[in-house]
Structure formats: structure tokens, C-alpha cells
Amino acid sequence: MTTPASLRISRLAFAYPDGHQALFGVDLTIARGERVALLGPNGAGKTTLVLHLNGILGGGTGEVRVAGLPVARPHLAEVRRKVGIVFQDPDDQLFMPTVRDDVAFGPAAAGVRGAELEARVRAALDLVGMADCADRPPHHLSFGQRRRVAVATVLVMEPEILVLDEPSSNLDPASRRELADILRALSVTVLMVTHDLPYALELCPRSVILSDGVICADGDTRDLLTDAGLLRRHRLELPYGFDAAAARPR
């Protein structure tokens, strides 16, 4: 039995108003429950692609479908509930007086109230190990803790797809490990945009390389990261001394 697709992108092309062509006919399908890393150099089109997933950008050609729904005006509210984006800087998502208020903001705005709201907030904070910090101001937390709360603000909306923009950036080793453990335990589809190739290997069995607006490689993460010529052509580098062939995902 074929696993249903969480995301299906067909022939997606997009140019900005200044004429810069960012995407040239991208095709990508991600099955429900997959964890996929989106790799590529700066300027490859990764952000442009991600912003098409919930309709922030549009007006190009081709089609994007999330859980079978076309990303188009009649479905935008539902699509945006199904695609949760965690930004690179958690402070872009945290603005309420307490952690609980931040996590409750999205579902409350969607009309969730009372015991259901409290239960969803508690469940989301439990998933990221931050329930004990529910009453703390977000700006009193460490950077790693704030990132986990930012993930909770998305998970509380019960998304189909969790999109993470550089999730390991600026994290100390312990926070990096804690976030990896959280992401491995989730049952949602994950699309992780990252330059951190070891993190991609650890968390994502499959990777896609986007370069110059096209997908130039799609396959097993270890296979891609052990292809030195492929990495060199697309300006991707492993840390000095890191052996992707010998590394074992935890």
C-alpha cells in the first residue's frame, strides 16, 4: 500500500518582480511521516520553495499540494494550519508574556477555548520537554529552550508538515542533542532546511539538494554526503574530519 503524500510539488517555477528567476520547474514528493533534509548553497532557492508551501509566495507556475489540498486562495487557511514553519530565530515567533501564552496564541486565534486549549498547550509543551517552564517569560529562557518553545507553538496547531529553518544553528551541543531527540520522536512529516550536513545525516534518512533553482540530487542522505564531487559542485561542505560513511545516526 502506497503511503499518502504530505507534500507534492509539480513543475514549480517562480520569478521575483525584479525578474530574478528563483525556481525552475521543481518536482518533489514527500510521503506522510518522512523526514527529509533540504540542502543547498545560499541563493539556491530553498527559502523561496519553503514560502510556497503555505502560500506566502505565489504567482508562479506549477502546483503545490499539501495533504492533497492545492495551495491556492480557497484553501489557504487550512493549508497554513497543516504547514507549520519554525524560523531560524525563535524570537521571531515568541512575543507573549509567558511560554504558555505563546503556545496558546495560535489555537486561541483559531477559536479553541477552555479545557481543549489548555490540553493542547500542555501536550505541545510536553512534546518538547518545556512543560515546567509554562509560566516563565520566554526572554528568560536559554536560546535552546526558546527554540523548543518555538517548535511547540507550531506543534500545538497539529500540523501535517513541520518545516524547520536551520534548526541546529546557534545551539550548544546539549541543546542540539535535545532537539534531535524531540524531532526523532515526532510522528509528523518533517522538512528540515539546513547547512548542517551531520545533523541532516543524523535526523533525515532522505535528502534533497536544491541548487540554482532546480533539484539536482534526491536520495539517501548518506549516499549524497559521501559523494565528494556532488558536494563540491554545489558548494556544500562537511566539517573537517567528519566521515559521513562511518557516522552512525543515533
UniProtKB/TrEMBL annotation:
Name of the protein in its database record: Energy-coupling factor ABC transporter ATP-binding protein
UniProt keyword annotations, A-Z: ATP-binding, Nucleotide-binding, Transport
SMART domains listed in its UniProt record: AAA
Signal peptide location: none
Organism: Streptomyces yaizuensis
One function term, GO molecular function aspect: ATP binding
Pfam families: ABC_tran
Family note: Belongs to the ABC transporter superfamily.
Residue ranges of every copy of the ABC transporter domain listed in the record: 7-237
Domain of life according to the entry: Bacteria
InterPro entries registered for this protein in UniProt: AAA+_ATPase (IPR003593), ABC_transporter-like_ATP-bd (IPR003439), ABC_transporter-like_CS (IPR017871), ABC_transpr_CbiO/EcfA_su (IPR015856), ECF_ABC_transporter_ATP-bd (IPR050095), P-loop_NTPase (IPR027417)
